Amino acid sequence: MIQNIPVYDICSLSDIRQDDLLVSRFAPYLDSHKKLFFPHKHSFYHLVLFTEGSGSHTIDFESFTVKPGQIYFMIPGQVHSWHFKGFTDGYIINFSEAFIQSFILQPGYLHNFSFFSGSLQDAVIDLPKESFEIVRSILENILIEVVKPAVAGSDMVRLLMLQLFIHINRLNANPDVSIKPTYNQTLLKNYQNLIEQHYADIKLPKDYAELLYITPNHLNAVCKDLVGLSAGELIRNRTLLEAKRMLVNPGLSISEIALKLNFSDNSYFTKFFKKAEGINPEEFRKQALKH
């Protein structure tokens, strides 16, 4: 059993660090990084297209079946592990936000893509056959640019990656919906961004509503209308996710986790966790670290 959950950066996964980017066929990458079968975090963005293989992979404690034609995306901080059966291959790209941002003037450009939102229902995609061939061709061209560097090679890689992102983003886009988000959609996104920044120290929807210059009732109505959850549930769900991420680190005690998440005491944290998960934090930890 691992003693501390590792957090990998691109440099730690490659002998050569080029512009905050790592591109590889998946089989040799997997063969070189056996420890990635255990739960771990990334400090970078990460995508994999499977072309062969079976088994499962887990992102933030939700398990997905591996299948050829599946692509998944991850953002920094998510907890991940693999459990493959037999030979598995495909393509992998690890990259920093700076790698793309240096090419795009629009701040936070990656956040425009739903598969980089952290929502798992958008992050794991089974590609239709035609799209699979398109995406595979793009990834093959990216690999060629990395293996055989040419003039402006990094910029060509960026262009190809943007082509891939835009193609996949269009798969689920509703042509009847305006490209420009509505006021309520923007409001929800701003609320989610605030939760991401403050879930540990701001616990009440009314305090977020004040930051957004709206009433708590308005905030709650927007959340229920767009995602089917109350404003309070979104805060609790994010707190619960971070608790799970911390619990797979055996180096942190339950009391330390409760303190980091600003619970008044250990028993209150345990009660919160058990109400949401049906088991206490220690039981969750044992299950998550069992291999």
TrEMBL record:
<dbReference type="Pfam" id="PF02311">
    <property type="entry name" value="AraC_binding"/>
</dbReference>
<keyword id="KW-0804">Transcription</keyword>
<keyword id="KW-0805">Transcription regulation</keyword>
<protein>
    <submittedName>
        <fullName>Helix-turn-helix transcriptional regulator</fullName>
    </submittedName>
</protein>
<dbReference type="InterPro" id="IPR003313">
    <property type="entry name" value="AraC-bd"/>
</dbReference>
<dbReference type="Pfam" id="PF12833">
    <property type="entry name" value="HTH_18"/>
</dbReference>
<dbReference type="InterPro" id="IPR037923">
    <property type="entry name" value="HTH-like"/>
</dbReference>
<dbReference type="InterPro" id="IPR018060">
    <property type="entry name" value="HTH_AraC"/>
</dbReference>
<dbReference type="InterPro" id="IPR014710">
    <property type="entry name" value="RmlC-like_jellyroll"/>
</dbReference>
<dbReference type="InterPro" id="IPR009057">
    <property type="entry name" value="Homeodomain-like_sf"/>
</dbReference>
<keyword id="KW-0238">DNA-binding</keyword>
<dbReference type="InterPro" id="IPR020449">
    <property type="entry name" value="Tscrpt_reg_AraC-type_HTH"/>
</dbReference>
<feature type="domain" description="HTH araC/xylS-type">
    <location>
        <begin position="189"/>
        <end position="287"/>
    </location>
</feature>
